[in-house]
């Protein structure tokens, strides 16, 4: 008889939602969810080895001398949540912007009075690496406590070679020392910095002087750009992204937040995901679908700006893979609560529970081009969260107020 002392059986759970074997795109009905009643899960070295009925796994565990982590209260188990779009490496607050915005001032009026993205740029440039690490770590602590075990983080508040590298360095340091997994993205193309009068020249500068260093120092393998009237236009974005792709970067795009050029660029350059999409219509949805681009919707930006949500229902019905992310940032999306935002857009856009939960687990993994997480299945990373309920439908029913009470990261309780 083989002994597996480093195997651990965790359970029993009232329900395990594995999120396995779901369609990768398009609609999902709740009866497509694999719900395992009285389930258990066996883990070893941070990976899942078995998922099944607890009493069957218990027999095996006793015979083979597994460790047993007993769950005594009713609980529902889900994969750890994945937040596929954030800007949580920043310094300063934009509460003044918020006050002006809710008092009726426009984006441009706020920017002209010293607010907007450039305000965050000023404050982030003033911060040291250590200060950024400290701020980012605190936000990661909160996210992990709320069940987010993998989180994308963008640069983009530096806008010079040195300052962008400083941000990515801070992200790398936190990633090394924090339990959460961070996926870094270079968003040097967030907007044209005040030092440049010509956008095209700035993008050329980033391509020649920043991206090679990022590759060399292994600071990110994803590149993003903000395509919008206030940021970069279609032609210059296309040129920049194709060059970045040529260098071996994965591409993602801030697209269709206020106008609709971004999704066309995302489709043409073969981006992994197009994010925002509040302004997208049927033509944009069809383009993204044909190009196999994941649609990442950001309800936090809609809530923060008092705007309508991205048309997630139409996107799913149009055959898209839809992920939901927070866009957690100091300006338009300061809330940063993934579960709450997913519940809100789900209620508003009439997404099934299955569609909403898939959008923050398995489909969010697809938006980040990651294959080893997002569902509870053999050889997946053992990132798991348990909720104090015996009915998984209550997780979204309480609209983000029911938080996980246990979070496991690579099989260890955090």
Write a structural description.
Helix 5 (129-145) crosses helix 6 (161-177). The chain is an alpha/beta fold and 414 residues long. 39% of the residues lie in helices and 21% in strands. The two termini are 33 Å apart. It is globular and about 70 Å long.
> What proportion strand?
15-25%
Class derived from helix and strand content = alpha/beta
Any idea what the radius of gyration is? 21 Å
Cα(first) to Cα(last) distance is 33 Å
DSSP summary, beta strand count? 16
Which key terms come to mind for this protein?
single chain; 414 residues; alpha/beta; 8-stranded mixed β-sheet; 21% strand
In brief, what are we looking at here?
The chain has 414 residues and is an alpha/beta fold. 39% of the residues lie in helices and 21% in strands. The protein is built from 16 helices and 16 strands.
Helices and strands, with pairings:
Layout: E1 8-17, E2 35-44, E3 47-53, H1 54-63, E4 67-70, E5 76-79, E6 81-83, H2 95-102, H3 107-112, H4 117-126, H5 129-145, E7 148-154, H6 161-177, E8 181-189, H7 199-216, E9 222-226, H8 234-246, E10 250-255, H9 262-269, E11 273-276, H10 282-291, E12 294-297, H11 299-305, H12 312-317, E13 322-324, H13 338-349, H14 353-359, H15 362-367, E14 384-387, H16 393-397, E15 406-409, E16 412-413
Parallel strand pairs: 1-4, 1-5, 6-7, 7-8, 8-9, 9-10, 10-11, 11-12, 12-13
Antiparallel strand pairs: 1-2, 2-3, 5-14, 14-15, 15-16
């Amino acid at each position: 008889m083989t002994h597996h002392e480093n195997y651990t059986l965790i359970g029993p759970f009232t329900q395990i939602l594995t999120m396995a074997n779901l369609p990768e795109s398009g609609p999902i009905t709740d009866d497509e969810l694999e719900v395992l009643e009285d389930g258990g899960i066996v883990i070893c070295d941070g990976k899942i080895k078995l998922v099944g009925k607890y009493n069957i796994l218990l027999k095996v565990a006793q015979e083979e001398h597994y460790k047993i982590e007993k769950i005594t209260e009713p609980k529902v188990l889900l994969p750890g949540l994945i937040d596929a779009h954030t800007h949580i490496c920043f310094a300063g607050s934009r509460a003044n912007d918020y006050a002006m915005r809710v008092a009726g001032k426009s984006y441009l009026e706020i920017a002209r009075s010293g607010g907007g993205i450039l305000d965050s740029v000023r404050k982030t440039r003033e911060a040291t690496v250590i200060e950024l690490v400290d701020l980012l770590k605190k936000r990661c602590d909160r996210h992990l406590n709320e069940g987010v075990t993998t989180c994308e983080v963008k640069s983009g508040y530096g806008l010079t070679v040195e300052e962008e590298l400083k941000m990515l360095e801070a992200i790398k340091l936190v990633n090394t020392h924090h339990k959460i997994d961070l996926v870094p993205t270079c968003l040097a193309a967030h907007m044209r910095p005040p030092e440049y009068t010509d956008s095209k020249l700035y993008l050329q500068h980033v391509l020649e002087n920043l991206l090679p260093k990022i590759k060399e120092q292994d600071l990110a393998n994803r590149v993003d750009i903000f395509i919008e009237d206030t940021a970069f236009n279609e032609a210059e974005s296309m040129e920049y992204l194709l060059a970045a792709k040529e260098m071996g970067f994965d591409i993602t795009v801030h697209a269709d937040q206020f106008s609709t050029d971004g999704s066309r660029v995302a489709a043409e350059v073969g981006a992994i995901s197009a994010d925002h999409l509040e302004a997208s219509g049927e033509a944009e949805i069809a383009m993204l679908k044909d190009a196999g681009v994941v649609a990442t919707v950001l309800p936090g930006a809609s809530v923060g700006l008092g705007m309508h949500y991205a048309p997630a229902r139409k996107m799913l019905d149009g055959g898209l893979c839809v992920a939901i992310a927070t866009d957690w940032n100091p300006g338009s999306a300061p809330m940063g609560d993934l579960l709450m935002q997913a519940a809100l857009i789900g209620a508003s856009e009439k997404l099934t529970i299955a569609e909403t939960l898939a959008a923050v687990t398995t489909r969010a993994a697809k938006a980040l081009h990651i294959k080893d997480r997002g569902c509870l299945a053999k050889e997946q990373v053992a990132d798991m969260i348990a909720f104090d309920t015996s009915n998984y439908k209550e997780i979204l029913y309480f609209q983000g107020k029911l938080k996980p009470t246990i979070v496991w990261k690579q099989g260890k309780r955090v």
